[in-house]
Amino acid sequence: MILNVKKAVYLKDYVLKVTFNNGETRIIDLEPTIFKDPLPLFVPLREKDFFQQFEIKFNTICWKNDFDLAPEFLYEIGVPADEAA
Fold this sequence. Notes:
Blueprint lengths: L4 E8 L2 E6 L4 E5 L1 H6 L11 H4 L2 E4 L2 E4 L7 H7 L1 E2 L5
Antiparallel strand pairs: 1-2, 2-3, 3-6, 4-5
């Protein structure tokens, strides 16, 4: 099955609650990715106001600077919502 993001909700800091088309919901903390990756596209996301302004396009999460992350990557780094503390 090809993974798609169906819904995403901002929780806090750099954490999102994402529901995928396989029916699973995962809690995804993007802080390590955003702050450790040297790509210039990550720099705007370090501002929480900008980070919060995402939308679902092309079956994944996208930001205003046309940056997106593959749904498979989001799924992989996420923790099942029912296991998140």
